Amino acid sequence: MAERFSRLPVANVSDSMSRMTAGGARLRPMHAGGVLAGPALTVKARPGDNLMIHKAIGLAEPGDVIVVDAGGDLTNALMGEMMLMQMIRRGVGGIVLNGAIRDSAYIRGQSFPVFAAGVTHRGPYKDGPGEINVPVAIDGMVIAPGDLVLGDDDGLLAVPFDELESVLAKAQAKFEAEQKQMANIEAGTHDAAWVDATLRRLGCEGLD
Asked: Which residues bind Mg(2+) (predicted)?
């Protein structure tokens, strides 16, 4: 399922979910490039503390996406080069941090998907507390363990596990419709009559 979603733009998936869900504009890709898609292994961490993130790396199955809600605090980095190397070695699918990273130059040189809210050189604490595999929320987007987490250059999205099939069908249809629309634009046959029709419906004057 993750592989099928990875072929679609996150924007198309978002459109298919009524544009009501998003991980927030602050969470941006920090890696060299590449799509994030995989089931969520969730972590709730104290701001600036990465003890439970270390534990989650040890628990992660190949393809899992570690999703960390650390309150969005950017004072201390939650991960850097060494943790990234561990995740790559274990076959983790990617990591989402509602917090900061460091060793950003190294991370930018890798294809391993890393989404975070910022960068700082100040390192983390390792005292806890924290929780693993509990529902977390990032900028209003709730992520439950096992939900599908998607990310590309436009941002992040979580698709609830029990909605995967229906959302995939809608997103695929949206993608195919946009491909046809772009072909019409290229051919000069795009029909924009809906613009004036919408303006008339809204009572706009001076169209004729």
From this structure: 103
